[in-house]
Amino acid sequence: MHFALPPRKTSRPPPYLPRTSHLPGLRRTRLKLIALGGLFFLALIYLITRSGGGSSRHGLPAARVPKGNPPVVIVTVLDSTKFSGTYLQTVKQNRLQYAEKHGYQTFLAKITDYDLEGSPFSWTMVVAMRDALTKFPDCHYVWFLDASSLIMNPKLKIEEHVMPSARLEELMRKDLPVVPPDSIIKTFSHLRGQDVDLVISQDKEGLSTSSFVVRNGEWARFFLETWFGPLYRSYNFQKAEVHALEHMVQWHPTILSRMAVIDQRTINSYAKGTTAEEYKDGDLVVGFPECVTVGPQECETRSKPFAQAWKRVFESV
Q1: 3-state SS of 148-211?
Q2: 255: which of 29, 206, 286, 294 lies 20 to 30 Å off by Cα?
Q3: 281 pLDDT exceeds 80?
């Protein structure tokens, strides 16, 4: 009689087979419900944060939207080494009266207010702009106006005369050399008014920082921080912050893509200049950019007839 022999053992173990789950059906159902509930909760949080303004489209905290209180902050830097005391009082009165009429605020800084770490005092304008945004986080616009200028037309408002998208579409000069006369870098031909955050003009020398407007927002803070960066301040530009700005605009599309160059007389007329620059009755501003090179009394002398005209106009409205 032959008996079946037991199977011979082998040195090769059978392949590992993972145990199959034997969870009860009820437990699997509960786990599915918990997972679905978790997904629903996460989706709900995502939708709330997106629609409620608490986050950006990338899930990061969204930028704070300014309420427009005040609509505009006028920033002017006062330098007693360049201007007489009488003239500076005229400038202060000019800014305060105009701001009061339109519900604006003024930010009148002195060149001694900030530690510029050895940089020329002209850089104060950039720090003052940044400081104004910190002090008035709900403003819509910050308008820098140099102390060598006077506001002449109290009827014109920045948020109407310059900044509306449709108005910017009319004013901006497209495909224009950034630094005249033949810079190969030109203003964007496809730029739309709604995308503009920096409004500035040119004179015969290049970009003019005597009068320019910045729209409050994250881009404005980025722009001012970049402009005041130690690299630009340490570089020996002939005209310090002005040439630094021109360099930024020509080499950084992030800046150029948000900048509109408009006709000079819209916000920056000169008392004397070419036909395109020279002040005419009804213009918003008149400037005396070269008076500081002569002496502190010169700006007072050149501005006197305009100051008298300004006071008469303001008293009549």
Answers
A1: CEEECCCCCCHHHHCCCHHHHHHHECCCCECCCCCCCCECCCCCCHHHCCEEEEEECCEEEEEE
A2: 286
A3: yes
